[in-house]
Design brief:
By secondary structure, this protein is an all-alpha fold. Helices cover 84% and strands 0% of the residues. The protein is globular and about 65 Å long.
């Protein structure tokens, strides 16, 4: 298995997909705000967040399936692959049915979302229709596990890009006709088209890949559960945490503020998602390396180093120029989102530590305390968000998120890494703190030079942010990357240049 080739393919197509995704969001968000209104857009965001809460019924089985298929792929065991896949289809079909039933029941209580009474019927009907989507999403976890096991994130990324393009085109047409219901119908139709394509393409990738009812065995379910049992709480906590800020905002501040907070969060999240083709693909690789009994300490620390470098390089220009970007993008009324962007950027930098450590521990099946950390994060974030949100509004909620990330994604993940792997974590902590200080200094310096300038034009924004981006690359190249990471990047670059010349 040529890991380098698979990684480069995943990175390339994942990046292309995320550029397209960003372009779609850039064009679609103003359209939705204009078509639905601030409150209507807030309602749509709450509906989407609600779907995420019911994905906790995954119970960690998706991670178990991905890991098991990766191990079977490494052994070239087609019978084992089909056994895992067949069991997962039945399993996710049952879990998806349960999630759809619970969402259907929840749809009768829209007041729990904190929406105005005039939106009760809209939320109720939309959630009932989206019960079908929840069921589909669960079934597709089996196919996602297959793509992950093959380390074919490029295919997954391309299919997701098709989904977003189809959905965007349908939303533009159908929201005009049916308002929020149009967004619901567009989402359902796009999912149906791309899910069928994903199933067909799976067979093309692996001809012997198929479902057999006789391969469904209780023994395999028990094996999957033995791995997933420690992820159940993690799955529940992760699903709930994704929409908790929107829920708190709707109850404390109102629907309009959901839109403002979401604009800020989406900007930071879109940048992070754009980086996931590079940063989020290492768990199956760690799994395969561990199956070979390799010592992967240096690989893990290279990933941490690379993660920190890339995130800091992208977040610095985002934080500095977000105010001008948001104004040019959406106009006035969203100024407060700029402050939220900067706070959330520092919060998500903490994932440069937690993401690689979590990937390693999941690959080693030493993940039982990851769920404890996620629960601690929620226990810190929710009450603190309520207290600070009442006193300081959206800024207080963002600060609560930042504080919970520093405690859990940074400190507790480093403690877990040291506990399980028995390596010193002081150099990782020092590197993280050093780069946070550099990042904060660059952002403050950027504010200092930008503040005297009136509102930037699109051309000035592109020029200034590009200069800042390449300046950040130079600075963080020396401050973030360790020697092995620099050597790896340099060798890949030289290899590409030699191929281009030939």
């Amino acid at each position: 298995m040529n890991f380098k080739k698979l990684i480069l393919g995943s990175v390339f197509w994942g990046t292309i997909g995320n550029v397209i995704s960003f372009a779609i969001a850039f064009l679609l968000t103003p359209f939705l705000i204009h078509s639905l209104g601030d409150e209507g857009y807030g309602v749509w965001l709450l509906i989407i967040a609600t779907l995420g809460w019911f994905r906790f019924i995954d119970f960690g089985f998706s991670s178990a399936v991905q890991r098991s298929i990766a191990i079977a792929m490494e052994a070239n065991d087609d019978h084992k692959i089909n056994t895992i896949f067949s069991c997962s289809i039945i399993l996710f079909g049952l879990l998806g049915s349960l999630a759809a039933i619970l969402l259907f029941i929840f749809s009768f209580f829209p007041q729990m979302l904190g929406v105005d009474e005039k939106y009760f019927d809209v939320v109720h009907i939309a959630l009932m229709i989206l019960c079908i989507k929840i069921f589909w999403d669960f079934l597709m976890c089996s196919f996602h596990g297959f793509y992950t096991g093959l380390i074919r994130y490029d295919v997954d990324a391309n299919i997701n890009t098709i989904n977003e393009l189809v959905k965007a085109l349908l939303i533009v047409v159908m929201v005009t006709w049916y308002n929020i219901y149009g967004a619901v119908f567009a989402t359902m139709i796009a999912d149906l088209i791309t899910n069928i394509y994903k199933i067909v393409y799976t067979k093309k990738l692996h001809a012997s890949f198929r479902f057999h009812l006789h391969l469904v065995k209780l023994k395999e379910f028990k094996a999957l559960f033995s791995y997933s049992k420690h992820i159940i709480a993690l799955s529940i906590a992760s699903s709930f945490s994704k929409g908790v800020d929107s829920l708190i905002i709707s109850h404390i501040l109102g629907l309009k503020y959901i839109a403002i907070y979401n604009i800020a969060f989406r900007l930071v999240d879109m940048v992070e998602r754009a980086l996931l083709p590079i940063l989020g693909i290492f768990q199956p690789i760690f799994t395969r390396l561990l199956e070979r009994k390799d010592d992967i300490r240096s690989e893990v620390e290279q990933v941490v180093s690379l993660d920190l470098f890339i995130v800091c390089v992208f977040f610095v220009p985002l934080a500095i120029f977000s105010n001008d970007f948001i104004y040019l993008w959406l106009g006035s009324g969203f100024e407060q989102a700029h402050i939220i962007v900067s706070i959330l950027a520092f919060a998500l930098v903490c994932r440069t530590i937690s993401r690689p450590i979590s990937q390693l521990l999941l690959a080693k099946a030493q993940h039982k305390y990851l769920s404890v950390i996620k629960i601690i994060a929620i226990l810190i974030n929710i009450p603190l968000s309520i207290v600070l949100g009442k006193s300081f509004g959206l800024t207080g909620i963002a600060v609560a998120t930042l504080f919970s990330f520093y405690i859990t994604d940074l400190i507790l993940h480093l403690v877990l890494y040291k506990f399980y792997v028995k390596y010193s974590v002081s150099h990782l902590a020092i590197s993280f703190i050093k780069n946070n200080i550099i990042m904060g200094s660059l952002i403050a310096l950027g504010y200092y030079f930008i503040s005297p300038i009136d509102q930037l034009s699109w051309i000035n924004l592109i020029v200034y942010s590009t200069i800042t981006f390449f300046g950040s690359i130079i600075i963080f190249w020396f401050s973030s990357l360790n020697k092995n990471a620099k050597n790896s990047i340099t060798s890949i670059a030289k290899e590409k240049i030699m191929k281009a010349r030939n």
